[in-house]
Amino acid sequence: MSSHTNQTNGALDERSVPPMGMTGQAFLDAAGSVVNDIERYYTSLPSRPVLPSILPGYLQKLLPSAPPTHGEPWADIESDIERTIMPGITHWQSPKYMAFFAASSTYPGILGEMWSAALTSANFNWICSPAVTELETIVLDWLAQILALPDLFLSKGEGGGVIQGSASEAVVTVMVAARERYIRRHLERKGVTDSDEIEDQSCELRGNLVAFASAEAHSSTKKGAIIAGTRFRSIPVHRSNGYALTGKQVRAKIEELQARGLHPYYLGVTLGTTNTCAVDDFESIAEVAKDYPDIWIHCDAAYTGSALVLPEYQYLSKQMTLVDSFNMNMHKWLLTNFDASCLYVRKRKHLTDALSITPTYLKNQFTDSGLVTDYRDWQIPLGRRFRSLKIWFVLRTWGVEGLKRHIRHHLKLADLFVELVKSRSDIFRLLTPPKFALTVLTIKPRDGKPLELAEVIKGDPRPFQDQQIPIDPETDDQELQKANDITKEVYTKLDETKEFFLTASVVGGVYTIRVVAVNPLAEEKYIRRVFELLVEITERVLERPDETQV
Ligand code: PLP
């Protein structure tokens, strides 16, 4: 008989493991030990290689191929974290992690996750746990104020916010709402009222609906269109325009689609694209949008939305009067553990019209009264986690001032990095002006032409970095190919060191290296070190005789 055997709950109880997996005292000991290990882990991060050194399938070799027959003591389970899991971890919280965008973690965020786990419930209706729904509404209203979003996104009006698992989930959710709104309006205008006819014509129309966005929009827009069963078209954008989508391009695409008998129903605009943090031209798009009120506009601000805590970026928040929905991920740059993707809609009715189905077992007096929010109707799944707790803990720990300083810290680190890159303009080129702490650079081949930035327009109220536009040096194909090969080689060599983790990307045919150091532990010394390493590797690569000249 196992040492866990439960002898106190009566003869019926033959469970060999205590109901909660361990006794209260054992939990206190285990949790204390885990919290200690987590703190030690965070302290040790700078000295750990940021990337793992294992091969695919490594874990299968360390773990048994069959599950345990009998329960194991916690001490054995705990020790396997360091032995088996750590070797396969990419340390996203390391100050040397400068890849993709960050996935923030903080101690208040972790504590929020602990309480959320402790209070586990499915939370689909208000009555499932009123505090879960009400706290979510409150913290999302707070966040909307912090980001200076237009009042129309606050819950006191017709709009409101909801926490989703990811920006991709937010996109597909609003795309379904957009699709249903478009179809409903279209059929109403045609005067279709018979329910079978509505269903038949809806299905027919669905295949001709088109979601569209800039070619630099995140792939989640295309994926959302696939899931929503509609078409997707992208619009090419160019370096000479900072990779921003313009109203003129939007109008041309709508006219082209309509001329082919298709129905554009969803436009994705981006505040901070993944490759270069480009910001679409919301003002000119807003002008065009006035002529097409049936097209749903969603703003994807997954990463860059966090920068709206700063007053100097809030001119962008004001421009969000353009959109039907807006989304940003607190779990990227705003100190909250994954997952905390905050979606705002201008009219919550459009979500609930598309997603509300109430079988008898979900009916209750509170829902029927219409006085409460049932977030199940604002999302795809039924059940949902208590995610607002960690947001609440984070907002209270930092306060608005603390959040501003947090974002400014990273912007300053990025400014430093850019200055360092510019100091070696003999070997590096900036592909775009640095934006929102993201720097995108390429290696300049020997005798290559520099990439210049256009002059700042005097009196422009926008932050300095937003005013500059890169001037294309008319690189010929041969030079571009050479630059791409060298940049790729430098990136690969840097990656092999495993000291830093950066991402490479291809933007408009140009192979680039992205550097974005925005996790909470980012520090100046690591910025200086990654620059030093880039210089060392680049000089080594450039010193090699040029084989194409032999
Ligand atoms: N949108 C943008 C601009 C992104 O950069 C990303 C991911 O980095 C996403 C959407 C997708 O985010 P998620 O993983 O939350 O779906």
Automatic annotation (TrEMBL):
Top-level division of the source organism's lineage: Eukaryota
Gene Ontology terms describing biological process: amino acid metabolic process; carboxylic acid metabolic process
InterPro entries: Aromatic_deC, PyrdxlP-dep_de-COase, PyrdxlP-dep_Trfase, PyrdxlP-dep_Trfase_major, PyrdxlP-dep_Trfase_small, Pyridoxal-P_BS
Gene Ontology terms: cellular component: cytoplasm
Residues modified as N6-(pyridoxal phosphate)lysine: 332
Keyword set includes Mitochondrion: no
One Pfam family hit: Pyridoxal_deC
Keyword Hydrolase (UniProt): no
Molecular function terms, GO-annotated: carboxy-lyase activity; pyridoxal phosphate binding
Annotated family: Belongs to the group II decarboxylase family.
Protein name as annotated: Aromatic-L-amino-acid decarboxylase
Organism name: Friedmanniomyces endolithicus
